[in-house]
Amino acid sequence: MQYDHILIRYGEMALKGKNIKTFIIRLQENIQQKIKEFPNAKVKRSQGRMFILLNGHEPDPVMEKLQNVFGIHSLSLAIKVDNNLEKIKEAALYALTKNEEVNTFKVSVKRIAKDFPVRSQELNQILGGHLLKNTEGIQVDVHKPDLEIKVEIRLEATYITSSVAPGLGGLPVGTSGKSLLLLSGGIDSPVAGYLAMKRGVQLEAIHFHSPPFTSERAKQKVLDLTKQLTKYGKAIKVHVVPFTNLQQEIFREMPEDYAMTIMRRMMFRISERVCENESILSLATGENLGQVASQTMDSMHTINEVTNYPIIRPLVTMDKQEVIQIAEEIGTYETSILPYEDCCTIFVPKSPKTKPKREKVSYYESTHDFTASIEEAINGIETIKVTDQEKVEEYFTDLF
Ligand code: ATP
Ligand code: MG
């Protein structure tokens, strides 16, 4: 007797019709992908649930992987037995005695297979009696038991579970299309990426890099952050844009207090071009209302003028402390606070406009032709595929 299955519950309540099918198929694929290093483990679907058949693998490392998969509501280790009273008794006793330091318990039977000859209520009593008779010093407590042994009699078999671990919730990555995440090396954008993924979004990332003002290590930091995000989904393509020339041109040709705003507009313009090439329909950023000069309402309004793509800003209403807490939970904080220079911080003007106006920016931009530098930046994009495996695959694309 052993815990040889993991039972997966998904909150499908909010989904209807065709969506539910897409959701389930994608969830199963994502789970399969995440546990592929356990070659004998199999994922099975059954009436509103999924099960992992462990086939000899240790449950804990598999559970750990599953706790990073979006779309899973909760998980339990389970013992699977035939729909046979003696087998069920034996498994319930195993579940109870396997847990040390249990003084009280309760049995909850759910009989989905209506042809099973004993009714739920009666089976509760039979199993309770069996457990009391075969243990010492353990009592029943129906209100606040140390351990609740759940017995689910399903059509194909009976599953016995005794603990529930929370899943991440959300929607399976890939069920909501793709978004291009503007990823800096800071605290915010990785968290924004994580939260977009939580809504089922598959990410690609774009990073604006300004060598030699920003170092190789700063770029590596962004790849490391991306790798951390792949823990919660699939491989992520990172488009690294050589931004130095364009950025210098902006700071040389444009009024200093508007340079920051114009730089952001360029980032969106270039991002949109990548989206067109990759068939991506939205952008995502770590922008937050009122944190810094570039994130006032006026500033967002002015920067946003250059694109009509939807922009997902999951952090827009959050306090910094809330963002930091998520960053710590998802494991990006440590990397984000490493002190490598960012392309935005090295060119920071002394007093950026906190209320930049669209008309003024458009006017300034019309006084200089940036086309050549924009095209040069786009043509120089290096695309790197980051996976959750050890190795970072690097390749150059001729995207444009
Ligand atoms: P973060 O912590 O994500 O760096 P921030 O609080 O520093 O954000 P800003 O510097 O104003 O805020 O940047 C706002 C958003 O613009 C970032 O969250 C990110 O989405 C995007 N961004 C900024 N710099 C870059 C960059 N070098 N490459 C790609 N995206 C960037
Ligand atoms: Mg930043």
TrEMBL record:
Cross-referenced CDD domains: PPase_ThiI, THUMP_ThiI
Catalytic reactions of this protein: [ThiS sulfur-carrier protein]-C-terminal Gly-Gly-AMP + S-sulfanyl-L-cysteinyl-[cysteine desulfurase] + AH2 = [ThiS sulfur-carrier protein]-C-terminal-Gly-aminoethanethioate + L-cysteinyl-[cysteine desulfurase] + A + AMP + 2 H(+); [ThiI sulfur-carrier protein]-S-sulfanyl-L-cysteine + a uridine in tRNA + 2 reduced [2Fe-2S]-[ferredoxin] + ATP + H(+) = [ThiI sulfur-carrier protein]-L-cysteine + a 4-thiouridine in tRNA + 2 oxidized [2Fe-2S]-[ferredoxin] + AMP + diphosphate
THUMP domain sequence ranges: 60-164
Cellular compartments annotated: Cytoplasm
Keyword Transferase: yes
Pathway: Cofactor biosynthesis; thiamine diphosphate biosynthesis
Gene Ontology molecular function: any one: tRNA-uracil-4 sulfurtransferase activity
Coiled-coil region: none
Family annotation (InterPro entries): Rossmann-like_a/b/a_fold, ThiI_AANH, ThiI_fer, ThiI_N, THUMP_dom, THUMP_ThiI, tRNA_STrfase, tRNA_sulfurtransferase_ThiI
Family annotation (NCBIfam families): tRNA uracil 4-sulfurtransferase ThiI (TIGR00342)
Role noted for this protein: Catalyzes the ATP-dependent transfer of a sulfur to tRNA to produce 4-thiouridine in position 8 of tRNAs, which functions as a near-UV photosensor. Also catalyzes the transfer of sulfur to the sulfur carrier protein ThiS, forming ThiS-thiocarboxylate. This is a step in the synthesis of thiazole, in the thiamine biosynthesis pathway. The sulfur is donated as persulfide by IscS.
Annotated protein name in UniProt: Probable tRNA sulfurtransferase
Native species: Oceanobacillus longus
Taxonomic lineage from the root: Bacteria, Bacillati, Bacillota, Bacilli, Bacillales
The gene coding this protein: thiI
